[in-house]
Amino acid sequence: MASDRDILPSWVKPSHYLVSIYDLEFGGNFTYQGTVTIDVDIKTTSGEKWNRIILNSHQLKVYNAALKLEDGKTSRDAKNITYDEKRQRVTLFFSDDITYSGRGVITIKFEGVINNIMAGFYRSRYKPKGDVPKSVAKDDEFHYMFSTQFESCEARRAFPCFDEPNLKATFDVELEVPEDQVALSNMPEKEVKKSKKSGFKTVLFDRTPIMSTYLLAWAIGDFEYVEDFTRRKYNGKNLPVRVYTTRGLKDQGRFALQNCHQIVDYFSEVFQIDYPLPKVDLLAVHEFAHGAMENWGLITYRTTAVLFDEKLSADSYRNRVAYVVAHELAHQWFGNLVTMDWWSELWLNEGFATWVGWFAIDHLYPEWNVWGQFVTESVQTAFQFDSLRTSHPIEVPCYDGLEVDQIFDHISYLKGSSVIRMLSAHLGEKTFLQGVANYLRAHQYSNATTNDLWSALSEASGQDVNSFMDHWIRKIGFPTVTIAEEPGQISLRQQRFLLSGDAKPEEDETIWWIPLGLQTGPSATEASLHKVGAFTKKEDTIRGINDAFYKINKNLTGFYRTNYPPERLIKLGEAKDHLTVQDKIGLVGDAYANAVAGHGSTTGLLAFVERFQDESEYLVWSQILANLGNVRNVFSDVEDISNGLKKFALTLVTPAVEKIGWEFKKGEAFLIGQLRAALILSAGLVGHKGTVEEAKRRFDLYTSGKDRSAINPSLRKAVFAISVNNGGEAAYSAVKNEYLSTTSIDGKEICLQSLGRVQTPELAQQFLRFIFSADVAMQDKHSGTIALASNAKARLELWNFIRDNWESIIHPTLSGNLVVLERFLRFGLNKFASMDVADEIEKFFKDKDVRGFDKGLAVVDDTIRSHALYKKRDEKVVREWLVAGGYIEK
Predict the structure, then answer these.
(1) Which of 247, 562, 658, 721 is the most exposed place for a label (fewest CB within 10 A)?
(2) CB-CB contact of 492 with 481 (8 Å)
(3) Which UniProt keywords apply (predicted)?
(4) For residue 526, is pLDDT > 80?
């Protein structure tokens, strides 16, 4: 057994499962019965005796178990069955010592519960459209569908198994379900038999390829589907591609369907391996802890990540659906066909699927400027989390499967994908993808490590990839490159970037391989790449620089911050119209981060973004508004500075919001619509009079029922938020009613985000009680807290509510699924900038069992304290700058 991980004994390995689920109770306790038969290989040393077999099992009741060995002589029942709840294991004891090495079959009968915590085999509630079969489970208000979520270690909640990623096996699944409902699994139906139970049928599915337990899936419900076929042929056939929904929603799956068949064909070409299963099913699940799950052949999605209504959905969800569909399809190869050896290498699955998901969307929608979006969303978010002391390496040690849920985070996904983008840019896209194809071919249907990927890429490129990527994967953090200028040359220094700005020598020992992407020339339009390639020392000097213009990290392909001299930042601002969208995003993001860390200043950031009043690109505005919003959050309890920053923001956005207007024009570019929505929301929240008045006018028409077309679907978030921000209890109640009555797939998310703009403690408390009512699904409880946390008038009320109701409401409601609890706390508490509040939070959780969300609390603490240091350091100079600019009256 490896000393760095707690895994099952290695001498018993599964090769095949038959999982039978039957006698489902469709109400009351929602129990079910099950039998699992597992073919195993037993490999012991000669003459070694054994009397027990250990499997994973969690919250299951095992009735009995039997072991039959292939020698034909040994068939015995387990005489004793014990549970290790903490390690989620069951041990089957046999009475006599056994001396045997070879094949065997374990048969276990058990009982489980179809739970309501979005893990294992669980139930999702929904309000149906149309007539529903009487067999569908329901209560007074909701109907239920059943589905599974087994990643990372939740298959053991559904059936006893060897629940580790490198213990791959094949699976046969049979489900006993009502005759008028649909059963789905990874593979197509093989046979449908009449059940002994009246009104039921038993559905058997074809055998799966060899795969990990976390990729097994099944679902039962009142489902319907829309269907298309791949254009490529696979084994001589066009593969069926379907989007399944509960009754009445299937037409909202057409956009995902349109993307799905194209992406399956595209990835089959790119990876040089045909999609390996006979079907692709996408299933919309009404309650879902994550965004989606890549179960092989039966991919499950949160409804807002797979359904899109052309008439009623906000256009931003079009982008989301396209990307999430692509991300999960990438996993069908990268993760499912080839699986990481252990959870410490989760990034191999998630980092690559994130990058190649965007790669596919860029192929389908080049007009969306996908890589600009990647830079402002993925790269900048990864920077934010990796700039904390509480970050972790991309490849992070993971002692047991119970620790892994907390590394499904922005480091594994977003930093992982960012360094893959950096490597692809360095090797060249064609070479990189050839190396990936070679890696997949070499390890298909088995497990692999990071070094296996590096070996394949090294062979394809002729470069020693491991030598320059090892630190990026196995070391914590990332560098900032500080530049000093002299005539005709620049000096570079790399150091670890921390948000707190106080990296100690022992925290700053890593020397990263940094692709410089250095451009220089007489002007931005005439600049060319400098011959220097990578920066691999702590300090270096680059000669042959044209002082008129230079810039490093072209298109922000390198995962590092840049700290320019103040005068150079001004010159780059003057040249902004000749820079790419990615370059502008990078400059704004770096100026903000350097201000927080103390490498630069807030005044430098404000002076820099002041030049962007005439900016026309949505993605650049998105970065500016996000960073300016963060600065305003930090200084929100310093009244004069808060008011001055609000006035500055108003001055900044006014020309742009007045130019773009309210009306969506036919044939208008997707990004123009996104810009309109962002500018109206921002302008309204900082008090732009015309925007506020128009938002209130449209809101009244919409909520009164006089004109439901008064608000474009893409402007609901902006109009609702502005109205709640300005309209008090009446507007709050109107948006709450909209939440309760909306039939739009994205409507509930949008309403919760808008309700978080309440401006009084009383309404904040009222909203929090509503969040924890039965009206708000478990999957959505964090949506409202994100807005509350960003709202200076409500932030403290949120913390008070968590503290005062921890034992009675928060922990009992959310702790069944620690992913949900961690996310709620991290999003809800990370916007403070007060050492006192950080101390309060630390003290409150000090004596509590925080395993499963301790890393989230550490991120909260680090973020708050870093922002508090920043506020204290820059408060005086920010005030002086705002006074000098007329944003604060003397």
Answers:
(1) 658
(2) yes
(3) Aminopeptidase, Hydrolase, Metal-binding, Metalloprotease, Protease, Zinc
(4) yes
The answer to whether residues 435 and 427 touch, using CB atoms and an 8 Å cutoff, is yes
**Distance from C-alpha of 764 to C-alpha of 789, rounded to nearest angstrom:** 11
Stretch (H or E) spanning 347? helix 346-364
* Residue 73 confidence class, pLDDT cut points 50, 70, 90: low
> How far is 422 from 206, CA to CA, in rounded Å?
41
Q: Taking a C-beta distance cutoff of 8 angstroms, is the pair 40, 65 a contact?
A: no
Distinct helix (H) and strand (E) counts, the chain: 27, 31
User: d(Cα 61, Cα 189) in Å, to the nearest integer?
Assistant: 29
Per the annotation, where are the binding residues for Zn(2+)?
A: 327, 331, 350
42-46, 289-293, 762-766, 791-795, range with the lowest pLDDT: 42-46
Q: What is the token pair recorded at 8?
A: 């099952």
Distance, CA of 677 to CA of 700 (rounded, Å)? 19
C-alpha dihedral sign at 276, 281, 282, 288: negative
Residue type, 731: A
Could you give the CA distance from residue 425 to residue 431 in angstroms, rounded to a whole number? 10
- Longest CA–CA span in the chain (Å) reads 95
Its CATH architecture, for the domain 1-221, is Sandwich (2.60)
Catalytic residue among 154, 174, 294, 328: 328
pLDDT in tens, 339-367: 999 998 999 999 999 999 999 999 999 99
Surface-to-core class of residue 190, CB atoms within 10 Å of its CB (0-12 exposed, 13-18 middle, 19+ buried): middle
Which residue, chain included where needed, has tokens 């902006």?
A: 718
Residues facing residue 31 across a β-bridge: 113
User: What's the confidence (pLDDT) of residue 1?
Assistant: 39
| Alpha carbon distance, N-terminus to C-terminus of the chain | 70
Tell how far CA 515 is from the center of its chain. 27
Contacts made by residues 670-674, CB under 8 angstroms, sequence distance 24+? 670/315, 670/318, 670/319, 670/365, 670/367, 670/368, 671/367, 671/368, 671/369, 671/617, 671/618, 671/619, 672/618, 673/315, 673/714, 674/315, 674/316, 674/618, 674/622, 674/714
User: What is the CB-side half-sphere exposure of residue 603 using CA atoms within 13 A?
Assistant: 16
| In contact, 636 and 868? CB cutoff 8 Å | no
Q: What percent of the chain has pLDDT over 90?
A: 91
Q: Say if residues 239 and 262 touch (Cβ distance below 8 Å).
A: no
Residue carrying the six token digits 């993808």: 433
Q: Residue 529 — φ and ψ, nearest 5°?
A: -70, 135
**How far is residue 762's CA from residue 768's CA, in Å, rounded to a whole number?**
10
pTM over 0.70: yes
Backbone angles phi, psi at 515, to 5 degrees: -70, 120
Catalytic annotation present for 176 = no
**pLDDT grade, residue 852 (50/70/90)?**
confident
Please, are residues 261 and 326 in contact by the beta-carbon 8 Å criterion?
Answer: no
Residues in binding site? 327, 331, 350
pLDDT at 5: 84
Lookup: tokens for 654 = 């006014």
